[in-house]
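Example (one chain per record):
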Amino acid sequence: MEKLKILRKTCNYTQKYLADLLGVKTKDISDWESNKSQPELKTLRDLAVIFGTSVLDILCNETVSTTHWQPWQKEKIIDSFWGHIGILLCNSTNIKWYPITSATAQRIQESLCYDEDILDKLLSVDTLNNHFLIINTKSIKKISLLDDSSDAPENWEIPWDGYQGLGAEEYYNLIEEYFCDEEYFYENTSEKLQLVIKDLIEENNFTEENVDEITHSINIYFSDNTSESITIEYDSDFTEAITNIEMGISKFISFEDSNYEIHFISTENIGLIDIPLNLYKKQLQLYEKQLQQFFDNE
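Predicted structure:
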């Protein structure tokens, strides 16, 4: 796990210090970093929380997004908290603010400044508070970028989960799991992290109903300032619909919700689509697996 070594050094943690945090031996950290062994899921979750990221980011080959603010680090594999993106929809006076990483901020700025065809495209943005945003640049008033060193604007309204989200993407996965698969949660989560999750649930007055809304509901904001919340399941074809739109295959988002209603929504009338990031990532994994199976069968 080369990523573990990079994350540890980025935070200026010694192997012993990290071992003490996890309640393991220093040799365990050394073995994990040198790929001699792998930590169990309980430990991976603790690591994800310590480094402000997710288990998926630690294990995959992509860049690690972290809520930690680390402007001094130079490792390209680590993408840390930078500030916020603000989105002002048409017929609205309230800007929606979301925490983002430095690479995301740079990509947004380059796309809006240098991509001559940006008005014919959808701009996708991962946030650090569990949102995957699809922005229709034709149907919004303004996009703002505000780094962490700037003063908050007058109309500043931070989301329910705070300035930088809950602190780690893995928290959102664990909160959902607590309500949806409690037995699995207790089997694969350390006792210390279980207590943290229970405190977050109590602090935010989470129930099975509102957690389901947070983790499975897609919020669609239309250009006339109306909105609609639609609940989908993990096996929905929503990710394929988004991919088709981004590739220019379709001008409609078409998908089935959890009540088996089929929706056809014109992208021209959409300003913003707000999807729970953990839902989108799981959907994307499923979609890529299905594609791979299709090509293997061919």
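Caption: The longest strand covers residues 78-89.
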